[in-house]
Structures are given as structure tokens and as C-alpha cells.
Design brief:
Blueprint lengths: L10 E4 L2 E5 L6 E6 L4 E4 L5 H15 L5 E3 L5 H4 L9 E5 L2 H7 L1 H10 L4 H9 L6 E3 L2 E7 L2 E7 L9 E5 L5 E9 L15 H12 L4 E6 L5 H15 L3
Parallel strand pairs: 4-5, 5-6, 6-7, 11-12
Antiparallel strand pairs: 1-2, 2-3, 3-4, 8-9, 9-10, 10-11
Helix pairs in contact: 4-5, 6-7
Length: about 240
């Protein structure tokens, strides 16, 4: 299994854990496999992109994705979700209502950033809202001793920020856009800048000093990078 990651353009992060940086917006999607289940973290920007990830997951593990965790409600992280039928979808508390309420805004954002009108409309029309809303922490058992902790650590980059932690030595933390490496962290209209540094403090508590931190965009980083970005955000937004 682990020897095949690179063949599909994925980066191996640990045993049964890998991620891919999707073209276009450099958004990360990640897979975590246990003996009984496979978790996908974020789903891409279109149904076509989601279907490609689905096929690669099937080829890597010989079985389908069973769980999806959505890091936050921006188009490049959620619009591929409907390509995965029969999955259990998780998001931070309030995300389901937001996606249902703001579907037109999601469509508009996707088109403004370069998704075709057809692809955006197709994805939004089929959009799947989370079945399970995480308040605090939720531990998923994927079998064979593989657990994943989903943690609602926002609001920060958005109003509904969810991270996934794969315990181990080191822990692997899937950060979503709370952390960005390939560009400056983006604070749009739905961001909560005053609470972002505290969210990164929580992220560091979850992953620890030796943790492997996987940004929503960019290369894998360490705790020192996350801490430095936390300080930069605190200065940028005038918070402690």
C-alpha cells in the first residue's frame, strides 16, 4: 500500500496516511486508512476532481472511502464531496446549515476563482452537507488500532474550522487553511482574525512539538513554522 502513493502523485506521510496537492489552487486532500475504514480529509473543487480522488483511493486501498471530514466551507475544499456516495460526512458544528444557506455564495466564489460555470453549478446542485457535526472532539475508529481525532478548533480562518489528528510518534495534523505554507494565510469576509492565534495554539496542543503539520496549501511544516505563523497573524491582526 505505502509503496504506491508516489505512483498516484501522492505524498506518503506515515503508514496508511498520505496527501495530494491538487492542481489549480494547491489545495490538500488527505487519506487515512484503517483495516475497516478510509477517511478522506477535504474533497477538492469540482465533482471531476472528487471522482479522480475517489478512483485513486480505490486503487491505493482496494476499497472505497467510508468517511469524509471537511476542514471548512470554501469551494476548493468541499465541492468534490458528492462524488463519494455512501460516505459519512463530518464537519464543524454549524457547517451543514451554512452550506445549505450559502450555496449560491459558494457557486459565485468558485466561478470568481476560475471554476467553470457548469462545473460550479453541477457541484453546488449536488452538494452534500455534513451528516455529523463536531463540537469539541470526535474520535473515529477506522479499525486495526487506527483512530483519527476530529477537532473543532475555530472559528478562525472561517467560521467552521475542523482539523484531523492522526495520533502516533509523531502525530500527523491535517490543518486545513488554518495553516498555509505556499502563500500568506488568507482572511476573507468569513474569517475571525481575533480568534485565529488561539486556534493555532489549540492546533499545537493537539499535535505537539514533534508533530507533522499538513497545511491546507503548501508543503508539510513543523511546530516551529505553525508557531511563527501564529505570531505573524497576531501582529497582523493586533491580537495577543
Amino acid at each position: 500500500m505505502d509503496a504506491s502513493w508516489e505512483e498516484f502523485g501522492w505524498e506518503r506521510l506515515g503508514h496508511g496516511v498520505g496527501r495530494r496537492r491538487l492542481p489549480g489552487w494547491d489545495a490538500t486532500v488527505a487519506l487515512v486508512a484503517g483495516t475497516d475504514g478510509v477517511l478522506l480529509f477535504d474533497t477538492g473543487s469540482t465533482l471531476r476532481e472528487g471522482a479522480e480522488v475517489r478512483a485513486q483511493a480505490q486503487a491505493l486501498f482496494g476499497r472505497r472511502v467510508t468517511h469524509i471530514a471537511l476542514s471548512h466551507p470554501h469551494f476548493d475544499h468541499v465541492l468534490g464531496t458528492a462524488a463519494f456516495s455512501g460516505t459519512e460526512v463530518y464537519g464543524a458544528v454549524g457547517l451543514a446549515e451554512l452550506l445549505e444557506r450559502e450555496a449560491s455564495g459558494l457557486h459565485g466564489s468558485a466561478v470568481r476563482h476560475g471554476v467553470t460555470e457548469h462545473d460550479a453549478a453541477e457541484a453546488v446542485d449536488a452538494l452534500v452537507s455534513p451528516h455529523h457535526q463536531v463540537c469539541g472532539e470526535w474520535t473515529l475508529d477506522l479499525g486495526g488500532g487506527r483512530e483519527v481525532v476530529l477537532a473543532d478548533v475555530g472559528p478562525a480562518h472561517s467560521g467552521h474550522d475542523l482539523v484531523a489528528v492522526v495520533p502516533g510518534s509523531p502525530a500527523i495534523v491535517l490543518c486545513g487553511d488554518l495553516v498555509e505554507e505556499s502563500g500568506e494565510p488568507q482572511a476573507g469576509e468569513d474569517a475571525f482574525p481575533s480568534r485565529w492565534p488561539a486556534a493555532l495554539d489549540r492546533l499545537l496542543e493537539l499535535g505537539g512539538e514533534d508533530g507533522v503539520y499538513v497545511p491546507g496549501h503548501g508543503a508539510v511544516v513543523n511546530a516551529a513554522f505553525v508557531r511563527a505563523q501564529r505570531e505573524q497573524l497576531a501582529v497582523r491582526f493586533g491580537v495577543s
